[in-house]
Design brief:
Strand content: 35-45%
Helix content: 10-25%
Number of domains: 1
Order of helices and strands: EEEEEEHH
Oligomer: single chain
Distance between the termini: 40 Å
Shape: globular
Strand order of the largest sheet: 3-4-5-6
Radius of gyration: 14 Å
Number of strands: 6
Largest sheet: 4 strands, antiparallel
Length: about 80
């Protein structure tokens, strides 16, 4: 369990789940984000894409479906 503001969240609840093309492998830790005028705890997860790429992604970006792949779909397009 980790604290999110004044709310406790279970950091392990999305481990093993597939979100878009990404599979959540493990919890990678947290960090304070001091931008936008306040302290916010950011939780990061190690994810693996269907193409085999591994990267770190913020929990909020995973759960709100902002990030659903490593960007591998863009690599084949012209100009990338």
């Amino acid at each position: 369990m980790a604290k999110r503001g004044k709310v406790l969240i279970n950091v392990n609840d999305i481990i093993g789940k597939r979100l878009g093309k990404l599979e959540v492998i493990s919890y990678a830790g947290n960090n304070y984000d001091m931008t936008l005028g306040g302290e916010r705890m950011r939780h990061y997860y190690r994810v693996e894409c269907e193409c085999g790429t591994t990267k770190l992604v913020q929990r909020g970006q995973l759960t709100s479906e902002i990030v659903h792949s490593c960007g591998c779909g863009r690599r084949g397009r012209r100009g990338y």
